[in-house]
Q: What sequence folds into this?
């Protein structure tokens, strides 16, 4: 079974670019909906996860969230923009609005 990097798609316009760049490095990447269960990713042999960016904010109630169990899979996880906010927020960090843009 080849190593797979999962890109969880939170609506970023760059999700396809991220997956393509991984494949250009000769690593198999697959794009999954953001709410794909950790059990599915484990079953497929995922060796790493990228949480894409997206138009939402973790400060908005009901914003998209991944299955919390992805953080217990024991694989490296990279968050990009919204994905990084999600990781910080879901793992106990503090995310807030900046006074400056």
A:
């Amino acid at each position: 079974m080849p190593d797979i990097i999962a890109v969880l798609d939170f609506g970023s316009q760059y999700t396809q670019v991220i997956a393509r760049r991984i494949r250009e490095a000769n690593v198999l990447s697959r794009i999954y909906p953001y709410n794909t269960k950790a059990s599915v990713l484990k079953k497929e042999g995922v060796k790493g996860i990228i949480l894409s960016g997206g138009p939402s904010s973790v400060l908005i109630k009901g914003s998209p969230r991944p299955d919390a169990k992805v953080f217990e899979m024991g694989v490296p996880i990279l968050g990009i923009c919204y994905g990084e906010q999600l990781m910080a927020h879901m793992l106990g960090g503090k995310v807030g609005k900046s006074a400056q843009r």
The longest strand covers residues 4-9. The chain has one domain: 4-90. The chain has a mean pLDDT of 95.
